[in-house]
Amino acid sequence: MNEQNQILYNRIIELSNRAYKNNIYVFSDFLSLSQQDLFFQATRDKSFAPIAYDLFGGYENCERKMVRFGSEKDFGYEVDFPIKCIKIEPLAKKFAKAYTHRDYLGSLMSLGIDRKKFGDIFVDGMDAYMYADESTADYLLENFVSVGRNSVKCSFSELPESYKQANLKESTIQVASPRADAIIARVYNLSRKDTIPYFTEKKVSVNGHIVENNDKILAAGDSVSVRGFGKFNIVSEGGLSKKGKLNLTVEIFGAK
């Protein structure tokens, strides 16, 4: 484990113990998929406190997520995640240029904001929506004023349901096997051989856990992310086709 990961690993254990010993909710920063995998490794450490936890990023299908240490069962009350959604829109849409996710990310980083302080960014035409922790969100409302050549304004909002639905496609696929490589290949129109590098380079995660074994068996309820392609959920398993293939219903995010 490299030094940076070791620091995060130790931090996770420290947060679990702080919540447990002080009987208070404690929250992590936003964690990437690889960091979430590190979190799950830390939960198996004997030093990790015996306390409940949840992961959430703003809405159920976010990739970057915070960890909340503690639960209503532990403390007798519940505290929401300190996450706010911000809408970013040009001051003059008539003359504005449409920018990409990378452009928004670059503009945020240029303000000196640590990547761990904000979560997923969703670009919706000329507008964008992003999740951030509460203190960062308050700062952005006052200081995030431009993206590229666009002058922008920020306001508290919610990710529109129309955006979620427009970027979600339900599809039925047929696979010879419920193996991860077979399903990923079918969802993203790849050969099984083409999927192998994504496993060896740790670009595949299932339910927040990095998966290196391409023969892992997947099932209904699993959420799969493939860096470079996106994310999909396995909604349900159907019967076998006449040719003996397994029918699966999947939700694919970002599908056109």
Automatic annotation (TrEMBL):
InterPro entries: Nucleotide-bd_a/b_plait_sf, RqcP2_RBD. It comes from the Bacteria. GO terms for molecular function: RNA binding. Keywords: RNA-binding. PROSITE patterns: S4. Pfam families: YlmH_RBD. Residues 79-155 form the Ribosome-associated protein quality control protein P2 RNA-binding domain. This is Ribosome-associated protein quality control protein P2 RNA-binding domain-containing protein. It comes from Pseudobutyrivibrio ruminis.
